Amino acid sequence: MPPKAANAAVNHLRNKSRASISTACVVSTSSSTVESGLRIVGAHTDSPGFRIRPNGATVSDGLARLGVEIYGGPILATFTDRDLSLAGRISFLDDGKHLTHQLVRFNQPLLRLPNLAIHMNRGVNEDGLKLHKQNELPLLFAQLTAGQLPKPYFLELLAQASGIDATRILSWDLAVYDTQKGALWGANQEFYADSQIDNLASCHAALQALLNDAVLNSAESTLVCAFFDHEEIGSESHIGAGGSFLADVLQRINAAASTEREDSARALAHSFLISADMAHAYQPNFPAAYDADHRVFVNQGPVIKSNANRRYSSESVSIAHFIRWCEEAGVPHQRYTHRSDLPCGSTIGPIASAKLGIRSVDVGCPMWAMHSIRESAGVQDHDYMIRVLERFFSD
After folding, report:
1. What is the pLDDT of residue 139?
2. pTM score, two decimals?
C-alpha cells in the first residue's frame, strides 16, 4: 500500500471513531459454515485517554475547566500542550417522549492542558513529568468573567455542536482527542504518526482484507471482523470481548445456516480467531526495556505475540498456522515475548477464544510509544498485515 494511502486510510477510520463508542461485527456469510467454520479477526476500537466527568465544568480564577477521568492506561505527560477537543455521544429526548442518541464532535481545538514552566518545576527533566490525577488534569477551555459557571454553559456548547436544544439533552459520553491529523515521517516517509494507532490500525487492516473482492469471491468460510469497545479497561462490559455480543452473532449465523444445534458446535470446531492488536517495537534509546532475544522492528513484518501465562492466546498450533499464512502471502513475520520482570499486557484474544472455545493467535504490527497521544508505526507493516489477513480469509 502506498504511504499516502495507508496514512489516509488510518486517518479515515480514526475520524470515524473519534465520535463513537462502539462495538461492531462485519460479516461475509458462506453456505458451508458447518464444514468450513468461521474465519474471525478480532480487534478493539477504544484507546486510553481522558473522559469528561458528568459534572466536570467548573470555574476558578476566571478560567473554566473540564474535569476528567482517566480511561485505561495513557501516558499522561503526552496530553500536555496539545490541541485537544471533544467527541462522543449525547442522549436526548427527540420529541419530548422518545429517547434517542447522536454522535457529536468539536472539530476545532477546544481544550488544553498547559505544562508548568520549567522555572517552577526545575526537576522535570531529571524526575519526569508527574501529574496529580485529581488536581492537575482538569482541562482549560474558556475564560469567563463571572465567578460561577452558569449551569447550562456546557450544555449550550453541546447544543451548538449537535443542533439539539440544550433543554432536551439528558446525558453524554465524551472523550478527549487530539485534533492534529496523522502524518508521514522519516527520511523516506516510511513511518506514520497519529493518535489511536493502537488499535484502529488493526481494525482498518482487517476491514481492508475482508472487503477485498478476490477474498470475497474465493472464501469458503464465513468471514467475520469483530471490533470491541472497552479492551483497554479489561473488556468486562456488554459491548466488550467479555460480553456475549460475538457469541450471540455467531450463534445467529449458525442458526441461519442450520437448525441443528450440533452443527453450531461443529462450525466452531472448524473456526479460527486472529486477535489483531499492536506490538512493542524495539526503540534503541531504551534497550533495557526489551528481551534481547525477542526484539521486533518496525517495517519488518507482523509480530506473533506469546506469553506462557496466556496473556496472549497464541500456542504452537495457532502460531504454526499464522506462519504458514505469512509465508503463503510473501510476508515476513517476527516473534515477541515480554521481559519476564515486567508485567505483560493482554488483548481480546484469550477472552474471546475462551468464551467461544476456538483456536486463536495474537498478532500485531510493531509500533512505538503505545498509549501515547501521538503513536508511531511503519507504513510497510500495515500493508504486510492486510496481505496476511487476506490470505487468512481466503484459506
Report:
1. 97
2. 0.91
Distance from C-alpha of 33 to C-alpha of 10, rounded to nearest angstrom: 31
For the segment 250-262, what is each residue's pLDDT rounded down to a tens digit? 988 888 877 677 8
- What mean pLDDT is predicted for residues 78-102? 93
CB burial of residue 285 (10 Å; 0-12, 13-18, 19+): exposed
For residues 48 and 71, give the distance between their C-alpha atoms in angstroms, rounded to a whole number. Answer: 5
pLDDT tens digit string along 311-361? 999 999 999 999 999 999 999 999 999 999 999 999 999 999 999 999 999
What is the enclosing helix (H) or strand (E) of 245? helix 245-257
What are the backbone angles phi and psi of residue 68, rounded to the nearest 5°?
-130, 155
- Mean pLDDT across the stretch 46-68? 90
**Percentages (nearest 5) of helix, strand, coil residues in the chain:** 35, 25, 40
* Residues 105/129, Cβ–Cβ less than 8 Å: no
Please, where are the H alpha helices in 75-225?
124-127, 153-162, 197-210, 213-218
Percent of the chain residues past pLDDT 90, beyond the cut: 75
Domain spanning 49-178: which superfamily?
Aminopeptidase i, Domain 2 (2.30.250.10)
Identify the CATH number of the domain defined by range 3-47+195-394. 3.40.630.10
Please state, in angstroms and rounded to a whole number, the distance separating the CA atoms of residues 253 and 264.
Answer: 9
> What is the greatest pairwise CA distance in the chain?
73
Q: What integer best gives the mean pLDDT of the chain?
A: 90
Round to whole Å and give the CA distance between 154 and 159: 9
Nearest by Cα to 140 from 56, 216, 218? 56
**Grid cell in block for residue 280:** 512493542
Q: 3-47+195-394 and 49-178: same fold?
A: no
β-sheet bridge partners, residue 85: 177
Adjacent-strand bridge partners of 183: 193
| Calpha distance 279→265 (Å, rounded) | 32
Q: Structural domain boundaries of the chain? A: 3-47+195-394, 49-178
